Give the backbone structure.
Amino acid sequence: MSSPECLTAEEIAAYDRDGFIVVEKRIPDDVVAACHDEIARFREEARGLSAHTDRIDLEDSHTADDPRIRRIKLPHAISRVFDDLMRSDWILAPVRDLIGPNVRLRSSKLNMKSARYGAPVDWHQDWAFYPHTNDDILAVGVFLDDVGPENGPLMVIPGSHRGPVFDHHADGYFAGTMSMAAAGLSERDAVRAMAPRGSISIHHVRVVHGSDRNRSARDRGVLFYELAAADAFPIAGSMATIGTLEEFDALMLCGESTIEPRLADVPVRIPLPQPPTQGSIYEIQKQARIKGFETVGA
Ligand SMILES: O=C(O)CCC(=O)C(=O)O
């Protein structure tokens, strides 16, 4: 690979070793402020809603009078601000340093994790949801608020991206979450992604991660862009599709597309059968008997 655009050799080595890095204060203050203006707009949109929409996923405790957004879905597709940020070098330069010049969008989401009630995300590997022909796939998390130990930081098990894909099934269905005990892993070994607003985290698609409920008085909004090397193609049965070639190519963010998938020696489990109720990761995990953070108490 050519010389890095913005990451240091130490950061690249840390990503390779741990499957995870934090780069402090990467996004300019005015861009973060513009993201907050967009969030205010979506909060208004949630007022009066009684069910999830294709744009907004609601907290279980949401009511029409007390609107509570759990996730803004596909923010890049419904907001110029989130789309512009995704296409900027603030995001793409570090991604190119890690997975090369040809980068395709997989998906995006803004997990609000609001003060006092923001929902947990139980332990999982993103790879369990969408295995591909190779694992040059990552998620960039843009910290829209200061993140500390108390407001539900992303927690990652360092080095777990080099291990197996763990069993994410329960009761005969894909459950979207895994038992840490059955995997021989301990929450005590997790590293927390904590940094000031405007920082980014980058986590590898196979790394084991999750985050607790936000029990604090401070919001923890993180905007995630999931990005893939152009030659990573979803495997049939994965919760990802190509659609037509035109649709797949329209997801290219930089570099060249290809119709020649790179086949790597990667562990794969197919997330089938799908659970009876489909929806966001929160809805899928809610049906599962395996509980991680919820056992700590709401
Ligand atoms: O918001 C978080 O802390 C967890 C994000 C995550 O793992 C997910 O949404 O799949």
About this structure: The chain has one domain: 9-32+88-296. Residues 29-46 form the longest helix (18 residues). The CA atoms of residues 164 and 267 lie 6 Å apart. The helical segments are 9-18, 29-46, 75-78, 80-87, 89-99, 126-129, 245-249, 281-286.
